[in-house]
Specification:
The protein is mainly α. It contains 11 helices and no strands. It starts with 5 loop residues before the first helix and ends with a helix.
Length: 218
C-alpha cells in the first residue's frame, strides 16, 4: 500500500464536485482526524454514485440509472430523515450496473460499517465513539478512490445500445471517419468503463460478421 499516493489519486477524481468535497477527507486524514475522515468519506462515495447516475440519465438517457434514481427519490420522499436509502443505492448500483469489479462492492460496504461505528456512540463500550487507526482510515480512503471516485460515469451496458442508436440517427451529420471519431471520443469513449468497451466491441463485431438487417446496417 506504500506505493499508493492518496494525494496524487485525489487529483484524478473524475467529478469536480467530488474532488472539492474530498479535500475535507484529505485534510482530516493528514491532521490525524481519522474518525472525521471516515464519516465524510462515506457521504462522498454516496454523493459520487448519485452524480454518476445523474450523468448517465441526463446525457445518455440510461434507463437503469433513471430507474435507480427514481426509486431512491421515492424512498427519500417517503421518509426524508431516514438514511436507509444510502445502502439501498449502493446495492442497486452493485446489482444493476457494472461499476464494481469482483469484491469492490464489499470494500464499499466495509466503509459503510466503519462510518457507522465512527458516527454512532456505543453505550456498552468504555469509549462511546470508535476511533479508526491511521492504517484503517487509509485503506478505506484508497478503496473509495479505486472502487468509485476514480471511475468514469459510463458504466452501464445500456449505454452501448444508446451509442449505437445515436450514431445511426446522426450518420448524416458524421460523414467521415474523422468526424465520427471526434464525436465518439467526446461523448462516449473517454468515459467508458473497460467492461463496457469490451461489450461495445463484441456488439460491433457481431454487427460486422454475424448479423444483417436494416437496423444493423444503419
Amino acid at each position: 500500500m506504500s506505493d499508493f499516493s492518496i494525494e496524487l489519486a485525489a487529483e484524478q477524481i473524475v467529478d469536480v464536485r467530488t474532488k472539492a468535497y474530498f479535500t475535507e477527507v484529505l485534510s482530516s486524514y493528514i491532521n490525524g482526524h481519522y474518525r472525521s475522515a471516515v464519516v465524510m468519506l462515506w457521504s462522498i462515495v454516496i454523493s459520487d454514485l448519485v452524480y454518476k447516475l445523474q450523468e448517465l440519465r441526463d446525457l445518455y438517457q440510461d434507463p437503469v440509472a433513471t430507474s435507480i434514481l427514481d426509486s431512491v427519490q421515492a424512498r427519500q420522499n417517503a421518509n426524508p430523515t431516514n438514511p436507509e436509502w444510502e445502502p439501498y443505492l449502493l446495492d442497486e448500483v452493485n446489482s444493476r450496473t457494472q461499476i464494481f469489479e469482483a469484491g469492490e462492492h464489499q470494500h464499499i460496504v466495509g466503509i459503510h460499517r466503519l462510518r457507522h461505528l465512527s458516527a454512532h456512540p456505543v453505550l456498552s463500550s468504555a469509549h462511546l465513539l470508535f476511533e479508526p487507526n491511521k492504517e484503517t482510515a487509509r485503506a478505506a480512503i484508497r478503496n473509495a478512490l479505486e472502487c468509485v471516485l476514480l471511475k468514469p460515469p459510463v458504466f452501464s451496458r445500456k449505454v452501448v445500445v444508446n451509442l449505437i442508436e445515436d450514431i445511426a440517427a446522426r450518420k448524416a451529420l458524421l460523414p467521415d471517419a474523422a468526424s465520427l471519431q471526434k464525436y465518439l471520443e467526446a461523448k462516449y469513449l473517454r468515459n467508458l468503463h473497460p467492461t463496457v468497451k469490451l461489450e461495445l466491441i463484441r456488439t460491433l463485431w457481431k454487427f460486422c460478421f454475424r448479423l444483417s438487417n436494416t437496423d444493423v446496417d444503419a
